[in-house]
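User: Can you write out an input/output pair for a complex, sequences first and structure second?

Assistant: Here is one pair. Inputs:
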Amino acid sequence: MEKKSSSEEWEKMKKEINELMIEGRDYAHQFGSASSQETREHLAKKILESYHKSLTILNYSGEPDQDSLGEGSPNSDDSDLEPRIVKSSKKSMPRWTEKVRITPEAGVDRSLDDGFSWRKYGQKDILGAKFPRGYYRCTHRKSQGCEATKQVQRSDQDPILFEISYRGIHSCSQAANVGSTIRVQNLEPNQNQNQEVLENVKESLDTDHRNYNHQSHLHQTLHYPLPSTPILESNHAYMLQMRDHNNEFFGTTSMSSDLGTNVSCDFLASRDVGSASHSTSNSPSTVRLESPFESFDPNYPFGGFGEFYS
DNA sequence: GTCATTTGACCCGT
DNA sequence: ACGGGTCAAATGAC
């Protein structure tokens, strides 16, 4: 009954997000032709704003039903399209899901690396899923009591797509350094790098737009390429702000980290996911695709996968 | 020796 | 009772 109104509300939000993303894409295009540093800074800020607004909307609504987003996760029982706030049944820990697709350019490591260190504590075959699900928790759980955990599930349909479910916010010191979005190693304010990053953003936005009609791509877009973006210092504060805001949505992990990474905490498997090379040696920044990858088709054109195996 | 991963057993919610 | 999530002993890598 109330379903309909929820549905309409979600449609409305989608539309808003769509507009924001298009706006961001346009700014990214302009960035490409901008000559002055000042203009670039301004555009970079605008791009970030678009992302921020989109995230705010998403954050407010909770995550769009993953199942409705296609890429069928094995655990999708309901087919409702309405968005819903996944408030963990487990206590009141925030929970959100991200879909990460491995890209040839980034490789598995980067694609899945969210900047956090994760330790795998279990793996399980899930009913109806071809690949086992990996369970990870923050490496600093013992030392700092960080309760963040994540689950990595490789998609049945798309072997290069991983669904990462995060639970809890990182309370460890790493959260402050990584944020959910910024890849520490990329913070070096190098202009070339900066431009490269924005180019990626641009590319990302284009891609998003292309897939716009597919909700399923919304998540992918959320792979903020920006995170790793060192962008200008003037924007750094903004990024951090965004990061904090996003922690609620992405958790600490995420994306390429964080807004940038990933799923910042490395997703895949923890090793994966969190890996981003961090302290514990555990996760070498690479998420080892673990078993899910063992059955990985070697024919996949992603050289990066090799890294997982090594 | 230390720490991460593996994996079967156990716990808990539905 | 079933399935998902976690624990913890065994094992492996560094």
